[in-house]
Design brief:
This protein is mostly helical and 179 residues long. The protein is built from 7 helices and no strands. It is globular and about 60 Å long.
Length: 179
Amino acid sequence: MDILAHGLWAGAAAVALTPGYRPQRSVWVWFVGLSVLPDLVHMLPVTGWAVFALSSADWWQYAMASPGQEPNMPETVRLWAHHLHCVMHSALSASVVTALVWWLRGAFWLPLLGWWLHIAVDVFTHSAEFFPSPVLYPITYWGFDGMAWNRPGFMIVNYLALALVWLGLYRLAWRSRAK
């Protein structure tokens, strides 16, 4: 799924999970931030390469690429981007971080659900031919063969669903405040 949609779905989830549909601003920001972090982190090597190669067109081509349409990049950039993608989209990595944060705080930290939501959504919205989400990395690179998020039909349905969800949340929040 694209980064904007990840943020919008996570924002909606944070609102829906909060009593009165009004999350604290810091909780909401962390929730949304952690939901987009996996894609931002995996783009760091590509961004660094594009900046130093003075090639914003290559960065955009990578960000919006379809299978087989990625720009020609140095092998080290490709490998770093690939492994960061795997680490950030792995339920095993998220489990380790979740357990560590839980242990340090003595309680589950709700914003981590943003990262978990990102992983869960990507499992079903990435095809096996292009950045499948390796949920069990580093044990295996296997990823579920889902529907490609960058297909126009999927994008239209996704953003229509987001509009309906946000409209519904707005109505629920308005009703809860009117009581």
